[in-house]
Design a protein that fits this description.
Blueprint lengths: L1 H6 L3 E3 L8 H14 L2 E3 L10 H13 L16 H11 L1
Length: 91
């Protein structure tokens, strides 16, 4: 909701594996309803998690000899506020 408010979007879509979560669906419906935002979810049968697809690609990359060093890493503690500030600064 913070990202939508900071960017001014009034229409949201929630997809991927997380969109199958009934708690997420209920919370997003409530939050969007309170703010007059339009919300879209795909049908549950289309709310698959991409982990298997990513794992499969990793398997084939491994077989092909492709490797990454420690510089290719996620940032679990990345602040959404900081990310929004960076995006605003790029505009």
């Amino acid at each position: 909701m913070l990202a939508a408010e900071k960017t001014g979007y009034k229409t949201l879509a929630v997809a991927g594996g997380v969109s199958a979560n009934s708690g997420v669906r209920a919370a997003m419906k409530e939050a969007c309803g309170e703010r007059g935002m339009t919300l879209y979810f795909p049908e549950l049968k289309y709310c698959g998690d991409n982990a298997a697809m990513i794992g499969c690609q990793g398997y084939f990359d491994f077989l092909a000899g492709k490797r990454a060093d420690e510089s290719l890493n996620g940032v679990a503690t990345l602040s959404l506020d900081a990310l929004c500030e960076e995006t605003e600064a790029e505009k």
